[in-house]
Amino acid sequence: MTEKLTASTVDGVLVPKSDGRPVAKAEKLVSVKGMNDILPPDSARWDWLEDKVRTRMKRYAYQSIRTPILEPTALFVRGTGEATDIVEKEMYSFEDRLNGELLTLRPENTPGVVRAAIQHNLTYDGGKRLYYMGPMFRHERPQRGRYRQFYQLGAEALGFADPQVDAELMLLAHDLLADLGLRDFRVEINSLGLPAERKLHRASLISYFQKHMDMLDAEAQRRLLTNPLRILDTKNPAMQALVMAAPQLLGFLGESSLRHFDAVKSLLSACGVKWAVNPRLVRGLDYYSHTVFEFVTDQLGAQGTLCGGGRYDGLFELLGGKPTPAVGWGMGLERVLELVKEQAADIAPSAPDAFAVILDAPSLPVAVKALAELRNCGVNVQMHASGVEGWASMKSQLKRADSSGARFALIFGADELAGNCVAVKSLREIDGQQIRQPLGGISSWARTLQLIN
Ligand code: ATP
Ligand code: MG
Predict the structure, then answer these.
(1) Measured in whole angstroms, how far is the alpha carbon of residue 11 from the centre of its chain?
(2) Residue range 392-432, pLDDT digits in tens
(3) I want to staple 101 with a disulfide (CB 3.0 to 4.6 A). Which of 64, 96, 299, 421 is the partner?
(4) pLDDT tens, 133-180?
(5) What letter does residue 233 receive in the DSSP assignment?
(6) Helix (H) and strand (E) counts in the chain
(7) Who lines ligand 1 at CB under 6 A?
(8) From the alpha carbon of 148, which atom of ligand 1 is closest?
(9) Closest ligand to 89 CA?
């Protein structure tokens, strides 16, 4: 069947005919506002970070979990909470054109992990320690450290009620930041106690704010009866004094809640982690209990919270599961990497070990086969290829070899191939030597040159 060769339009933009001939100069497309491309050499820093994360998670015996990026909207309405900024104004939600299902790009991963745990009965034989890394989506005003697609690392310990697991998770985050070479961050901690204790505090908070109605901004007035705890979290400078003098939840905690809180703090201290109680640190939802915490830096301006987490013993039931204690945190990786740039050593993108200079078409089959053999021995090899047809000169290929950062150039020319050899030229020494090596014994000279161990 022959395809019809006509220009067509997609969303009003002319696209090339299907035979590849352009009809008109196509308009450039750019990424969605607040959503970033991560490009080399910066991507090397991301790879480095992900390696550090995997190693650290293994040390603590956390296993990875991957859940879908798209979930039913109801999961977040229930699991993140209707009265939160996320659900009120930040979600990318839409109706599936084909079946009318209401879907949302995940703004966070905790509800997805808990949904998966319930769906697959993950905690049937005891607790599970899990971690994830991946993109999240929130429709916020983009600025440094705040994007519409951003990456979160999260750790969740499901099915554990003991305070040592709260401490373990905090130590895990602390160790990871240290692995990345970060210093100068604070660990803030608070306890939200139990729902009954919070109810008493809530009543006293509402009556306190009601006495000062004239000092509440519009958002606080709106939240007074739906989510008064969240008012403590306000960023409005005009309300800081009011919030500072508000009744503190800590004053309403009973004995067992205080014991849980003290156990977490003393375990952190025993491990040399410096923490500070921040009585205004809150998560305004009923399914939270006991420990909440944040890792904060002053070096990133207003977007200084690197990691936030806490215990959410009520979430499983809210999502239709059996009562299951759980605790976790989420860490913003763009912010962490900003801090790495400021505080830690530079991460150089990795260079290939060798760069293959190939001088003519007849050399290609032998060269490509030799490169495959080298790679199978564990050598990282970049092959020359040019953007236009034809063969670049030896000089220009060697220039590229040099700027690739490789230690050696492997020169495949007619002379070398006639002798079943390759010329290996050292690029990182003054007057780098060039020595012919036999194609028959690749692994032995690769070892001699310390290209492999
Ligand atoms: P904030 O108060 O900064 O909006 P949050 O309370 O909404 O943070 P969480 O939902 O607890 O944040 O998410 C955990 C972490 O994810 C935050 O501490 C932050 O490091 C990161 N984070 C949250 N939103 C964004 C975003 N839009 N862009 C980049 N990182 C983000
Ligand atoms: Mg937010």
Answers:
(1) 32
(2) 999 999 999 999 999 999 999 999 999 999 999 999 988 87
(3) 96
(4) 999 999 999 999 999 999 999 999 999 999 999 999 999 999 999 999
(5) G
(6) 15, 18
(7) 108, 138, 140, 145-147, 150, 152, 303, 305-308, 330-332, 334-335
(8) 27
(9) 2
